[in-house]
Design a protein that fits this description.
The complex is a heterodimer of chains A (460) and B (432).
Chain A lengths: L17 E17 L2 E19 L2 E7 L4 H19 L16 E3 L9 H18 L5 E17 L4 E6 L2 E10 L5 E10 L3 H4 L4 H18 L7 E7 L1 H13 L4 H5 L19 E4 L2 E2 L2 E2 L16 E5 L2 E2 L6 H7 L7 E2 L8 E2 L3 E4 L6 H6 L3 E13 L4 E13 L2 E6 L2 E6 H4 L5 E2 L4 E9 L1 E9 L2 E7 L3
Parallel strand pairs in A: 4-6, 9-18, 17-24
Antiparallel strand pairs in A: 1-2, 1-5, 2-3, 5-6, 5-7, 7-8, 9-25, 10-13, 10-17, 11-12, 13-14, 15-16, 18-19, 19-20, 19-21, 21-25, 22-25, 23-24
Chain B lengths: L3 H13 L5 E17 L2 E19 L2 E7 L4 H16 L16 E4 L7 H18 L3 E19 L4 E17 L9 E7 L12 H10 L9 E8 L1 H13 L4 H5 L20 E3 L22 E5 L2 E2 L6 H7 L11 E3 L6 H6 L3 E5 L1 E4 L7 E7 L2 E4 L2 E5 L4 E5 H6 L1 E10 L4 E13 L2
Parallel strand pairs in B: 4-6, 8-13
Antiparallel strand pairs in B: 1-2, 1-5, 2-3, 5-6, 6-7, 8-20, 9-10, 9-12, 10-11, 13-16, 14-15, 15-18, 16-17, 18-20, 19-20
Helix pairs in contact in B: 1-2
The chains are: A alpha+beta (460), B alpha+beta (432).
């Protein structure tokens, strides 16, 4: 990231408007080895400056790929002109946001950029392990992706700062033929909030994960279709985290609440079992660094945790400064933009169901006839709270014991109905590193314990 | 505006100093103007200036790629040094290649001169039309934009393409809402090249709004049955796209997980179905000029009367799998219209659904899919009985293509694809 040339531009901010100037660089590294072929070996760097200006209820925004004091001045001017242009159409003028105390925020972790050879070699090593140990696969793929962001934020009436968001992931995807000759696949992700040298210096944890993935794939190759209907299930933490993000998280983003989300009428009401609490953590979760720590958002709000559901009661929404003013709430630093040219939107950070007191083995033993759902590829939910998740890995539970594996299926339900059926929550906690696609892409993390509930399973 | 010619010379001259290297690169400059409207009011106006250089090199049969968004000599030369170092770290593979040299050519799109004031007025008019025609629609958010770009593509075999393009887009997010109940979020998207018509009359916007309004007070299906499903054009695009990704794309060809790997020239779908990939169709607003490998992009058929005619392979995948590279890189799907009027299609359904989209996990190579039917309506004895909620459909994408019973006469075009409705039989429908 170039030096901070933006702070000196504050004198160009017009009075009577609220301005944020942001310099940002995104670096992407991608490597993919497919069946031993290095098919992707790519890097990209994108950086620039944007300015956002708020005037009486509307925003002007401008961005440029140049990074210089002159470009910053032009960007501020263009954004201010855009705000004034929109003001002509604005018949209902709004007040300015309350000021936020000025401070300077930095994140403790900055970005370390490795040469591509080191990253390629890591992937080759992982691929060689799979090729050597598992010879009956139909397909194998090892992918490395790294999305790092670094931002300098300068505001007229909030906090300033210089923050970085490094993250690297390795995704292993294995495939084999099922007993009836159809291709079946499973994938597993390994990740860390930091750089490859820190998280992938020792590959043994990845090898152990691959061994487990292969076992699950072998089981799935002999798997059966799930029986359709409302079933008692144990959701693995990866799946529970998806519920926290998709089924609850999006419905309590204040912009979607204003759009008519089911959460709007349920603030302060029981929306889940008393065993369920959900928090969108800023940077520290349960005494440890959160997987995607956010210290300062793109409006200059110092980030802190947003409590969404506490003991089953819907306690609050996630806000930007505009929605916080509308709802009389305090913003917690949820406004983020993905690229330098993106305006900040209300986004989740590290959204998790909090762990309970049950042991996973006791939870499984308590199910007479149901499923243990371990893996999900993606999920969606809408304003009504109706959600679905694809299930890529799961097992039957019969008389308290794990049974046959199941083939790919989908689970669905209404979030606030399903969460009321939760009657056990494990004492474990596992995080997942995902990308959220609400207008712009955005790295997020989700997490949770295993939970026992009733859910609708799709089947043949 | 930047001097793209000068930038291209910096790149070309520096690559030439690096010895025996195959390379191609594109230089792009774009300006975007975007308006956001919430609750019937303009809330954000963005002006974005961006640059992009994408460089691909092959050295000693090792390939790497990079992209940057700076046009200065120092940054460009550093990026070239790094991408060559990346390639050297790779693995040699004789299947990596670039297209042969072609005669230089220039391409010009239609909407090269924007009218932002008129775009503002058309956007405002759309919000007023929605308010007037659809009293039970809550307009959540609307984005309207104009994008103008210039691009140069060059490869070391002598190809040079210069292109200029411009287009408008509108995306509308809304929900059915009668003050007490709300439907799920719905949307409509459109790409277009002029502002001559009211936006509500274009693409599927009017129909999508009607469907959302009609989705209030849904009914529940309580049983599970095998039935007919009418896939609306946007849902048909979702299903056909999912099938193609799992059958003809690079990933499944190279991994050999495609179930169509040895099906070229064979019947893989109903004889009613013809799927063409047509970047140069006049209804497609932004044309693909060249493939990712540097061949001039051309229209081609993927499936003709149910017979698989081509894979969508890149040059690398084609060399790897000993098939022909596809004549274009993107998907600009044009599905031929059928002979059945849409209303007759609905009347023919004894028991089933009309489905606007399927909220489902990404299907795997075996094509199995199950998901929640969204913007969906229950049909019994040829009559639409009402919207449904908490209803799932399950099936196999490859079987669905074989089980197409009718294709509508009517097609919908959103500027990026042209699609009719499809009537598919034997789909598992499961209520709650």
């Amino acid at each position: 990231m170039p030096e901070d040339i933006l702070t000196g531009q504050k004198s160009l901010f017009e009075t009577g408007v609220q301005t944020v100037l942001r310099g940002q660089e995104n670096r992407i590294r991608k490597i993919s080895i497919q069946n031993g072929n290095l098919v992707t070996n790519a890097r990209s760097e994108g950086s620039g400056i944007c300015a956002r200006v708020y005037l009486k209820g509307a925003y002007g925004f401008a961005s440029t790929a140049e990074y210089s004091a002159e470009a910053a001045a032009k960007t501020i001017k263009a954004a201010t002109e855009n705000a004034k242009y929109l003001d002509k159409f604005n018949s209902e003028k709004k007040n300015a946001y309350p000021m936020i105390a000025n401070s300077y925020v930095t994140s403790p972790r900055m970005i370390i950029d490795y040469e591509q050879k080191k990253l390629v070699d890591i992937c080759k090593e992982v691929d060689a392990y799979i090729e050597k140990n598992y010879t009956d696969l139909l397909s194998r793929a090892v992918s490395y992706d790294e999305v790092t962001m670094e931002k300098i934020i300068v505001t007229s009436d909030a906090a300033d700062g210089h923050v970085a968001y490094p993250r690297c992931r390795i995704i292993v995807d294995l495939g084999m033929k099922s007993r009836d000759g159809q291709p079946v696949e499973l994938f597993k992700m390994f990740f860390g909030c930091g750089h490859a040298g820190e998280y992938f210096a020792d590959l043994n944890p990845i090898y152990e994960g691959i061994d487990e993935l292969y076992k699950n794939l072998k089981d799935k190759a002999n798997g059966v279709y799930a029986e359709a209907g409302l079933k008692t299930v144990i959701l693995h933490p990866d799946v529970a985290g998806m519920i926290a993000h998709e089924a609850v998280g999006h419905t309590v983003e204040a912009d979607l609440v204003q759009g008519g989300s089911v959460a709007g009428a349920n603030l302060g009401k029981q929306v889940a079992s008393e065993l369920v609490s959900i928090v969108d953590f800023a940077h520290t979760a349960l005494g440890k660094d959160a997987p995607f720590p956010v210290y300062l958002d793109d409006e200059g709000v110092v980030a802190k945790d947003a409590v969404l559901v506490e003991n089953g009661i819907l306690k609050g929404f996630m806000h930007d400064r505009e929605s916080a003013l509308f709802y009389g709430a305090e913003p917690c630093g949820n406004a983020r933009g993905y690229e330098f040219s993106d305006e900040p939107l209300i986004r989740m950070r590290n959204t998790a169901v909090l762990p309970g007191k049950d042991k996973l083995e006791d939870m499984i033993a308590s199910v007479d006839d149901g499923y243990y759902l371990l893996g999900t590829g993606n999920g969606q939910a809408d304003l009504t709270g109706e959600f679905m998740f694809g299930i890529t890995c799961g097992y039957e539970i019969k008389n308290g014991k794990i049974g046959r594996a199941i083939l790919d299926t989908t689970v669905s339900g209404i979030a606030f109905d399903m969460l009321k059926t939760v009657d056990m929550v494990s004492d474990s906690m596992i995080w997942w590193a995902g990308m959220c696609g609400k207008k712009q892409m955005m790295p997020v993390s989700t997490g949770g314990p295993a939970i026992k509930c009733k859910i609708t399973i799709g089947g043949r | 505006m930047a001097d793209l010619q000068k930038v291209s010379e910096i790149i070309f001259d520096y690559i030439k100093t690096k010895g025996d290297i195959k390379a191609d690169f594109s230089i792009n400059e774009t300006e975007t103007n975007e308006i956001t409207m919430k609750d019937g009011k303009f809330t954000l106006f963005r002006t974005l200036f961006d640059n992009d250089i994408a460089i691909k090199v092959i050295k000693d049969n090792k390939k790497a790629a990079t992209s940057i968004n700076k046009f200065d000599k120092e940054t460009i030369e550093k990026a070239i040094d790094e991408v060559i170092a990346s390639a050297e770290a790779g693995s040699p593979d004789e299947c990596f290649d670039i297209a042969p040299g072609l005669e230089p050519k220039e391409f010009f799109g239609k909407a090269l001169t924007p009218d932002i004031e008129k775009l503002m007025n058309r956007t405002l008019e759309l919000s007023e039309d929605i308010a007037a025609r659809h009293k039970k629609i809550l307009l959540i958010e609307m984005f309207a934009k104009y994008v103008r770009g210039r691009s140069i593509f060059i490869n070391t075999n002598g190809t040079r393409d210069d292109s200029e393009y411009g287009y408008y887009e509108v995306a509308v997010e809304f929900a059915g809402n009668d003050g007490t109940a709300s439907t799920g979020i719905a949307g409509s998207f459109l790409r277009f090249d002029n502002l001559d018509e009211r936006l509500i009359d274009l693409g599927s916007i009017e129909r999508d709004l009607q469907d959302a309004e009609n989705s209030l007070n849904p009914i529940k299906i309580s049983d599970k049955f095998e039935g007919d499903v009418i896939l609306t054009p946007s849902c048909a695009a979702q299903m056909i796209g999912g099938t193609l990704m799992n059958s003809v794309s690079d990933y499944v060809l190279i991994s050999k997980t495609s179930l169509w790997l040895d099906k070229l020239g064979e019947q893989v779908a109903s004889p009613l179905l013809t799927v063409r990939n047509k970047p140069w169709d006049e209804r497609i607003v932004v044309h693909e000029v060249h493939t990712a490998d540097g061949f001039r992009a051309e229209d081609y058929d993927l499936i003709e009367k149910g017979v698989l005619k081509s894979f969508a392979a890149s040059l690398y995948a084609a060399n790897k799998c000993k098939v022909k590279p596809a004549p274009c890189s993107g998907f600009y799907l044009v599905v031929d219209a059928g002979e059945t009027p849409y209303d007759d299609m609905v009347k023919s359904v004894k028991r089933g659904l009309i489905v606007g989209s399927v909220s489902a996990g990404a299907p795997g190579a075996n094509g199995e899919i199950s998901g929640v039917a969204k913007n969906a309506f229950y049909v019994e004895n040829g009559e639409i009985k009402g919207a449904v909620i908490e209803t799932m459909i399950s099936g196999n994408l490859f079987d669905m293509l074989k089980n197409i019973k009718a294709i509508s006469k009517e097609q919908t075009c959103d500027g990026m694809m042209v699609m009719p409705s499809l009537l598919v039989g034997d789909v598992t429908i499961q209520g709650n």
